[in-house]
């Protein structure tokens, strides 16, 4: 067995040494029997370790798990027991978090685009934290609060104005779709203050953000261009939500959670002094990515011509089976194949099993896989616990959604 990191190009040469192998529990599970592929197996012990480690690295920050990264009830349930809060984006995610035992006050409705009836749904269940980035969205929130003026006191409602972030340094940037510029944010927050709401700012520095300094840049913007003008207008910023972005361990190496924690804490201390706003973060990927492994089967190895330097390797999982983050080859999963470590290797294009020509995982970036790789071989995609089950199509081309197994927590 070998975990491949030796692809063409210098950027990845160090990756094999930095990447954690699947846990002993996952190895034991994979060895038990040959199961129908593809499937994801997640070791909940790893999720718990990640949560505790990030919580320790960000001691003054409340963690809201971004449910979309992997909403399995097995994960949400024990995170509630750990004291984790939740970032939700729809009535469906609200229901999942509440079903797992979360209290409504522990939920943040982080989607900036909500139907009015979805805001009502959240308010009526007791959710009081809402993100927004436009006047129309603020008006919807204010309207719903007014329509429930007997039961909801405006200061209980924390509105987080999302500001634009360029996503530089991130492998999966979220830049253009969400957020507004700082001048609009100040204006929106002054309007929110007039409604009597508690005021906050949120941002997302881009998912799989490999530069801890990105948070300082965003926090500096918040301090200088939002908090300061708000103070001049007589309003205090009650909360800052620094979003997600904390990385999983893929082919390229990443800084540790402690590096992120130190960078963020230093920036907060420097920019906001001894009495900073309430701090929130919304880790998704970091908590679950490294806890999961997808096992897949090689369906076909082919060459397009006798002159081709590379082979095409078709797996039984692809873009529509959960690997949507291979779009643009943004996320590069470590890949483990059978055959001896010293077996001859060569470049491949890796593709999924559907009849859609977009269903190609890696073509620009050439993974080097064993020449002996053949149909029927089992291949593992490492660090696939985040953004896979949720991206898997229900039945595109007749393929079922990604199966998943969750290995229960071991004590304590
Ligand atoms: C998806 C999302 C997150 C999680 O981001 P990660 O990079 O996975 O940590 C956090 N906040 C919001 C608003 C999101 O949409």
Structure, explained:
The chain has eleven helices and 19 strands. It is α/β, with parallel strands linked by helices and 412 residues long. Strands 1, 2, 13, 14, 15, 16, 17, 18 and 19 form a nine-stranded mixed beta sheet that branches. It has an eight-stranded parallel β-barrel with strand order 3-4-5-6-7-9-11-12. A two-stranded antiparallel ribbon has the order 8-10. Helix 3 packs parallel to helix 4 and helix 8 crosses helix 9. The radius of gyration is 23 Å and the shape is elongated. About 3% of the residues have low confidence. Pyridoxal-5'-phosphate binds next to helix 11.
In short:
The chain is α/β, with parallel strands linked by helices and 412 residues long. It folds into two domains: 2-22 and 289-407, Beta Barrel (Lyase, Ornithine Decarboxylase, Chain A, domain 1); 46-287, TIM Barrel (Alpha-Beta Barrel), CATH 3.20.20.
Q: What's the overall average pLDDT, rounded?
A: 93
Order of helices and strands: EHHEHEHEHEHEHEEHEEHEHEHEEEEEEE
Shape: elongated
Beta strand %: 15-25%
- What is the H level of CATH, i.e. the homologous superfamily of the largest domain? Alanine racemase
| Count of distinct structural domains | 2
Number of strand elements: 19
Helix content: 25-40%
Q: So how many helices?
A: 11
Instruction: Report the CATH C-level class of the largest domain.
Output: Alpha Beta
CATH architecture of the largest domain: Alpha-Beta Barrel
- Please mark out the parts with pLDDT under 50 across 5 or more consecutive residues, or reply none: 5-18
Rounded to an integer in angstroms, the radius of gyration calculated over CA atoms is: 23 Å
Ions, cofactors and other ligands present here are: pyridoxal-5'-phosphate
Briefly note the CATH topology name of the largest domain. Answer: TIM Barrel
């Amino acid at each position: 067995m070998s975990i491949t990191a030796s692809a063409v190009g210098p950027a990845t040469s160090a990756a094999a040494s930095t990447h954690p192998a699947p846990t002993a529990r996952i190895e034991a599970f994979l060895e038990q029997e040959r199961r129908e592929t593809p499937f994801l197996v997640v070791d909940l012990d790893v999720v718990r370790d990640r949560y505790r480690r990030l919580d320790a690295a960000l001691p003054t920050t409340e963690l809201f798990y971004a449910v979309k990264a992997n909403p399995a009830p097995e994960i949400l349930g024990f995170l509630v027991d750990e004291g984790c809060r939740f970032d939700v984006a729809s009535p469906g995610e609200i229901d999942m978090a509440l079903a797992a035992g979360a209290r409504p006050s522990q939920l943040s409705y982080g989607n900036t685009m909500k139907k009015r009836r979805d805001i009502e749904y959240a308010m009526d269940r007791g959710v009081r934290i809402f993100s927004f980035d436009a006047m129309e969205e603020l008006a919807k929130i204010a309207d719903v609060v007014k329509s429930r003026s007997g039961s909801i006191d405006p200061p209980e409602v924390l509105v987080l104005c999302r500001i634009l972030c360029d996503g530089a340094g991130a492998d999966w940037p979220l830049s253009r779709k969400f957020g507004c510029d700082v001048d609009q944010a100040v204006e929106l927050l002054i309007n929110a203050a007039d409604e009597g709401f508690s005021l906050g700012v949120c941002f997302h520095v881009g998912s799989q953000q490999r530069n801890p300094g990105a948070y300082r840049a965003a926090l500096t913007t918040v301090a200088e261009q939002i908090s300061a003008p708000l103070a001049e207008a007589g309003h205090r910023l009650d909360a800052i939500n620094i979003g997600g972005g904390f990385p999983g361990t893929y082919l390229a190496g990443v800084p540790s959670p402690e590096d992120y924690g130190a960078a963020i804490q230093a920036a907060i201390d420097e920019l906001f002094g001894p009495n900073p706003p309430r701090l929130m973060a919304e880790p998704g990927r970091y908590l679950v990515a490294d806890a999961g492994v997808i096992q897949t089967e090689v369906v076909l190895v082919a060459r397009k011509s006798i002159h081709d330097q590379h082979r095409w390797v078709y797996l039984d999982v692809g873009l529509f089976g959960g690997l949507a983050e291979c779009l643009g080859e943004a996320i590069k999963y470590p890949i483990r194949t059978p055959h001896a470590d010293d077996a001859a290797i060569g470049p491949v294009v890796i593709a999924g099993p559907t009849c859609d020509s977009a269903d190609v995982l890696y073509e620009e970036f050439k993974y080097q896989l064993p020449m002996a790789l053949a149909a029927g071989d089992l291949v593992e995609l490492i660090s696939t616990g985040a953004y896979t089950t949720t991206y898997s199509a229900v039945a595109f081309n007749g393929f079922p959604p990604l199966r998943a197994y969750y290995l229960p927590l071991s004590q304590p």
